[in-house]
Specification:
6-stranded mixed beta sheet; Rossmann fold
């Protein structure tokens, strides 16, 4: 099984650690404990048609880095990133768009996905007001809920698929 490093990036409190724990442990913790530095998780994406299994080494960053994260040693050898924002906090969505632009500039050709998290907090039928850069075609945008698990594993499976295709 090949292993690939994938970064979780985003502002403080957007749910990066909750997404990682939902992905790896299939649980949600209501006690908020901020990440200090980085926590590392491992998730095995099972074999799929035409793609062997892939071990994702998920680096959950603390959110204090801003654009400086792209010059940090944490980013070394990262195959992809999941850039997370909180759908209920517009500022985090704007920061998510800036991080996406920074990732494109720093790592051309590497995959990233926007994860718009906490969709469970919106009223039924309510649509979020997304900043324009998040709606550009060609960059996946996935609506997630770490609380319910909606689309979390699917987003990482899709990333594994893209990482595999780009390697061949």
């Amino acid at each position: 099984m090949i292993a690939r490093k994938i970064m979780l990036l985003g502002e403080i409190g957007v749910g990066k650690s909750s997404i990682a724990k939902r992905l790896v442990l299939d649980r949600f913790e209501f006690d908020y404990k901020p990440t200090i530095g980085v926590d590392v998780y491992q998730y095995d994406v099972p074999d799929d048609a035409g793609r062997p299994g892939m071990r994702l080494i998920v680096w959950d960053t603390d959110g204090n880095f801003g654009d400086a994260i792209f010059r940090h040693v944490y980013m070394k050898q990262a195959s992809a990133a999941m850039i997370v924002g909180d759908v209920t906090r517009r500022g985090t969505l704007e920061a998510m768009a800036r991080l996406g632009e920074g990732f494109l500039d720093a790592f051309p050709g590497r995959h990233f996905t926007y994860l718009v998290n906490k969709f469970d907090l919106l009223a039924e039928g309510q649509l979020p007001d997304l900043p324009e850069p998040l709606t550009r075609q060609g960059i996946p945008l996935v609506r997630t809920s770490a609380l319910t698990g909606d689309n979390v594993r699917e987003a990482f499976r899709a990333a594994a698929e893209i990482i595999h295709r780009r390697a061949h």
